[in-house]
TrEMBL record:
Organism: Nephila pilipes
Residues reported to bind Zn(2+): H21, H25, H31
GO molecular function: metalloendopeptidase activity; zinc ion binding
Source taxon at top rank: Eukaryota
EC number: 3.4.24.-
SUPFAM superfamilies on file: Metalloproteases ('zincins'), catalytic domain
Designated name of the protein: Metalloendopeptidase
Length: 125
């Protein structure tokens, strides 16, 4: 907070969506699928998650969520339906309850309107 933010991208992270996702973290955005109210919008299948990766599906403490927008399945901060799957392409780790296909950040073109609203609220601009 208030200081420099170092952004390091490993091999395979050169996709625009991945870069924007990581910059989102540097700006203070959290994963959309980890919101405290996510169970209203998602089915999460923890049994399909690779060993040691369950923390990627932990929900945020509601007391730490100070800014809300509508749930955004297309957010650059939302993982895809096979994220951290034991069998990617076979076993889904989450599904949208409304049937929306959940895409990985690397498949997304950039920020959604809700992502932009979140940044504006965070920085009061």
């Amino acid at each position: 907070v208030g200081g420099a933010q170092k952004l390091s991208l490993g091999d395979g992270c050169g996709y625009v969506g991945t870069i924007v996702h990581e910059l989102g973290h540097a700006l203070g955005l959290h994963h959309e699928h980890q919101r405290s109210d996510r169970d209203t919008y998602l089915n999460v299948y923890l049994d399909n998650v690779k060993s040691g990766q369950g923390h990627n599906f932990d929900k945020t403490d509601p007391s730490q969520e100070l800014i809300y927008t509508n749930y955004d399945y297309s957010s650059i901060m939302h993982y895809g339906c096979y994220a951290f799957s034991k069998q990617p392409g076979v076993l889904k780790t989450m599904e949208a309850k409304n049937g929306t296909l959940l895409q990985d950040p690397y498949n997304k073109p950039g920020l959604t309107n809700n992502d932009i609203t979140m940044v504006r609220k965070l920085y009061k601009c």
